[in-house]
Design goal:
single chain, 14 helices, globular
């Protein structure tokens, strides 16, 4: 009897691991996101389309497709996708180039491709494919990544994609995320932290120099600031002094800050936002966090941040217990993507950094974003399924 019990216990301890905590957090964020998309967009959707649930329906359709894709990917062994790493990189390049002749322009940016009734944002494809390609590349390099050539090769691989995203699709935020994913994956793979300290210092120095130059150029030609510093230079000036550009580039930032400030600690109540009534443009997109703070207060805002921290913690647990380096790097890449995007979005909404136009994962309106984020979650769940309970 004791032997039978011991055998059963040993068998159960070697079962595959399923991270239900991660799944619950993702489903919670998706559900909360759908509620907030409806709350923030219902007024403008009713005015523009005569249907207050217009944006909600489109987001729900993309979410359902994403969940189906997530479950399919989660049940496929993650090593299956390694053979498509190079193809994925090439597909990313082709899709971005297709923006030039076939791209759809919206809100002054040409970033979308239409495949029948479905819109696709190549930037989201590029992020996923970059995670897959770098995971495969780092595993192939092995110990050579510690050398100067291996280190630089991993840093240079995402640069063509990042430059194309920036110049062709005018999407600097996605370019920053692609590079950030590469740096984080390289950081966990290479033990020489001095290089990363040097990279960080060089990056901060370059950013500070750029801001200084733009301010000096604007001061030298105050009558023609826009022409002298360019579009992105104007955003930096609006970040430094949003009230001076309240009718132009600083308008959205000021309205977002009004929303956050008027919400107080507990908020005005779900659906009771005033800023979404035509004052804050496209509130359901990049600035949805400000409406969360207005309707649910700082309590709601901090609750959302805590949920993302818990999500990142689950990623770290899975990465630390992954069966191999390739699986661990996949999870680290997804962690980097989501963490960087959350930090940038909240920093933009609170005017901590210049406005870059970046969505809040799982919550902001955007079909391509939520679909490919869920596919990435499927990859993480696939890695988690490879973990044996006895290894935890």
């Amino acid at each position: 009897m004791a032997q039978r019990y011991s055998s059963r216990r040993g068998q159960s301890n070697s079962e595959n691991f399923m991270d239900y905590s991660l799944l619950f957090i993702v489903l919670f964020l998706l559900g909360f996101g759908l509620i907030m998309v409806y709350s923030t967009s219902s007024y403008e959707a009713n005015l523009d389309f005569g249907d207050s649930a217009y944006y909600l329906k489109k987001q729900m359709f993309a979410t359902i497709l994403g969940l189906v894709a997530m479950m399919i990917v989660a049940n496929v062994p993650y090593h299956f996708w390694e053979r498509f790493a190079v193809i994925g990189y090439m597909v990313s390049v082709v899709l971005i180039l297709l923006i030039i002749p076939f791209g759809h322009e919206s809100h002054g940016a040409k970033r979308w491709l239409y495949i029948g009734p479905i819109s696709l944002q190549p930037a989201e494809v590029a992020k996923l494919c970059m995670i897959l390609f770098l995971s495969s590349m780092i595993c192939t390099l092995g110990k050579r990544i510690r050398g100067r050539r291996g280190f630089l090769s991993v840093l240079l691989v995402p640069m063509p994609i990042a430059l194309m995203l920036w110049q062709i699709t005018n999407n600097l935020s996605s370019a920053i995320i692609v590079v950030g994913i590469a740096v984080l994956m390289l950081f966990v793979s290479c033990p020489d932290y001095k290089r990363f300290i040097l990279l960080g210092l060089l990056g901060m120095a370059a950013a500070a120099l750029m801001v200084f130059v733009i301010v000096q150029m604007a001061a030298a030609q105050p009558a023609a600031e826009e022409s002298s510093v360019g579009f992105r230079g104007g955003r930096i000036l609006a970040w430094l002094d949003p009230e001076a550009y309240a009718s132009d580039k600083g308008f959205q930032t000021i309205q977002a800050l009004y929303a956050i400030g008027s919400g107080g600690v507990l908020g005005k109540g779900l659906g009771a936002s005033m800023q979404k009534l035509g004052f804050l443009p496209e509130a359901q997109n990049d600035m949805i966090f400000s409406i969360i703070c207005e309707e649910l207060g700082l309590f709601g805002g901090f609750a959302v941040i805590i949920m993302f921290i818990m999500l990142i913690w689950r990623f770290m647990v899975i990465a630390n217990n992954a069966p191999d380096l390739f699986g661990a790097l996949l999870v680290v890449g997804v962690l980097g993507h989501i963490a960087i995007q959350v930090i940038l979005n909240i920093a933009v909404v609170t005017n901590t950094i210049p406005n870059t136009g970046i969505s809040l994962p799982f919550i902001s309106y955007g079909g391509s974003s939520v679909m490919f984020l869920l596919i990435e979650i499927g990859l993480v769940l696939s890695v988690a399924r490879g973990i044996r309970l006895k290894d935890l």
